[in-house]
Amino acid sequence: MRINKENTIGLVVDIQERLLPAMEGQEALLNNCQILINGLQELGLPILATQQYSKGLGETVEPIKSIIKDFKAIEKKDFSCCDEAVFAAELEKLQAKNVIICGIESHVCVLQTALDLKEAGLNPIVVMDCVSSRDYDNIDLAAERFRFEGIMMTSYESILFELTRSASAPEFKAISKLVK
Questions:
Q1: In which residue ranges of the chain is pLDDT below 70?
Q2: Which runs of E-coded beta strand occur in the chain?
Q3: Helix axes 172-179, 156-164, angle to 10 degrees
Q4: Which of 33, 81, 82, 109 is catalytic?
Q5: Which of 14, 81, 82, 129 is catalytic?
Q6: Among this protein's residues, is 78 annotated catalytic?
Q7: pLDDT for position 58
């Protein structure tokens, strides 16, 4: 299945002040997520962002918050974004079919969200170099579960070029510059 820009959105899951420092490879994670978000926006895709219990875990980190156009976090307490009514309403409003997911933690909120999106008939696409957990074993276990459940996994470079489709696309130069 080819992923096209139409009916596709980005989802940033819980990249928050008190969570990010505990993640494996946090610097690479942050850098990769910034590239992905900038690329998705260059391609004209809307971005949704969630925050898990902001009172305890803090706000979305500034390097992410500052690059998302018209940033407004969707507050949640359930692990799956899909259990939050505001998130579900936004998906419906955007007529999303494909949801490109980055964030933390891969084996909890990212996993449960991807499972629920798939069950709802949508196509979750987990960008594996843009997700993390507190330890590498949980990242690996999440990947195994995604594979078992038939949930697509990719890299930021792969999905950005897939959405761009051609070197003649107007966004190609900007996307190429981002991934270098």
A1: none
A2: 8-13, 47-52, 73-76, 98-104, 123-132, 152-154
A3: 170
A4: 109
A5: 14
A6: no
A7: 96
Cβ 9 vs Cβ 94: under 8 Å: yes
Residue 101 burial (CB count, 10 A):
28
Is 130 designated active site?
no
Chain-centroid distance, C-alpha 153: 11
With H, G, I as helix, E, B as strand and everything else as coil, classify residue 6: coil
Strands, sheet with 98-104, edge to edge from the N-terminal-most edge strand = 73-76, 47-52, 8-13, 98-104, 123-132, 152-154
| pTM, entire model | 0.96
Total residues found in the chain within this entry = 180
Q: Note the pLDDT of residue 108.
A: 97
Model pLDDT, residue 160: 97
Catalytic residue from among 76, 82, 116, 130 = 76
Using the structure block, give the residue that is written with the tokens 């909120």.
109
> Catalytic residue at 14?
yes
Place of tokens 């084996």: 107
What is the per-residue burial (b if ≥16 Cβ within 10 Å, else e) of 171-180?
Answer: beeebeebee
CA distance 35 to 149: 27
The superfamily (CATH) of domain 8-179 is Isochorismatase-like (3.40.50.850)
Task: Write down the pLDDT at residue 1.
Answer: 84
3-class DSSP assignment, residue 39: helix
> Distance between CA atoms of 120 and 114, rounded to whole angstroms?
10
Write out the two tokens for 10: 């980005």
